[in-house]
Amino acid sequence: MSRLIDAEFQGLVMYRRDYAERDLLVQILTDQFGPKMFLVRGAKKRGFKLTSAILPFTEATYIGRISPEGLSYLTATKTTKLWRNISEDLLLQAYAAYILSLAGAAFPEGEPLGRAFTLIQTALNQIDGGIDPQLLTNMVEIKLLDRFGVAPDLTGCAICGRNDLPLDYSEAFGGLLCQNHWARDPHRLHAQPNAIVLVQRLARMMPLQLGATDLNPRTKRELQRVLDHIYQDQVGLVPKSKKFLDGLVNGGNGLLLKRD
Questions:
Q1: What kind and span of H or E run contains 195?
Q2: Are strands 34-40 and 175-178 parallel, antiparallel or unpaired?
Q3: Burial class (CB in 10 A: 0-12, 13-18, 19+), 234
Q4: Which CA distances in Å does 19 have to 13, 23, 75, 112, 128?
Q5: Is the CA virtual torsion 171, 95, 66, 21 positive or negative?
Q6: How far apart are CA 60 and CA 78, in angstroms?
Q7: Residue 243: per-residue pLDDT
Q8: Helix H segments across 57-190?
Q9: Number of neighbours of residue 171 by Cβ within 10 angstroms
Q10: pLDDT tens digit string along 188-231?
Q11: Three-state DSSP class for 60?
């Protein structure tokens, strides 16, 4: 039997599900141990002391017993914060769930997240604070690419290095091509140059640097098309949460991802 490790850690609730009559299984994205599954006994009982700390769309500082393999256990919490705006808005929930599922796919259980935990945590807090959820999600998508073995050079043209001409994304060249070299890859994405500029900017920024924006919706749709292509064709990852998000945005009131 694996030895349990007593630890204090930060965590973001990913999801939870029923387990037995009074218990819950809660998956938490932790800063020190990656995504971990916790068995929370008595969680359905009235007056349970950790109720607020295991709600969906919650971040907290937890104290628990960590198992290197199998289920871990929560014993206490020091601080708890519910992302209230996210918890009350289905579209924001969909963005948050997708970000958390990306992080869960990028980091195996037991591996510390390091700076990526702050990236995810800050992006979700920014979404809860009213900052553009698509752009924050796109920023996370870009910054996690290297975790999936895809690290395109977004600084300039892969052939000549120029960044002062219109650029396009080329899977064949592992990054960007300037207008002078577009003919070298007939299968480039044929993306709008403004969308590529936006990819470059998001790659350089952190979530706290993103404030209110007034971008052309067409540019945002094109940005999402570029990233969808990279994740589908190069990463090979389309989580269920992403499919749900796309369906919600395309079929609901939001039109950010709607294709022309």
A1: helix 193-204
A2: unpaired
A3: middle
A4: 16, 5, 17, 27, 29
A5: negative
A6: 7
A7: 95
A8: 84-87, 90-106, 115-128, 133-143
A9: 16
A10: 999 999 999 999 999 999 999 998 888 999 999 999 999 999 99
A11: strand
Q: What is the mean pLDDT of residues 164-168?
A: 96
Amino acid 184 reads R
User: DSSP letters of 242-256?
Assistant: HHHHHHHHHHSS--T
**Strand extents, DSSP E, 43-86:** 58-66, 72-82
pLDDT of 44 above 50: yes
* pLDDT of residue 255 exceeding 50: no
Distance of CA 2 to CAs 39, 127, 155, Å?
A: 15, 38, 46
Residue 70 has a pLDDT of 86
Distance CA 242, CA 246 (A): 6
As given in the structure block, the two tokens for residue 110 are 């037991």
pTM higher than 0.85 for the full model?
yes
The tokens of 84 are what? 């209230």
Cα–Cα distances in angstroms (integers) from residue 200 to residues 160, 194, 240, in the given order: 17, 10, 27
pLDDT-derived band at 260 (thresholds 50, 70, 90) equals very low
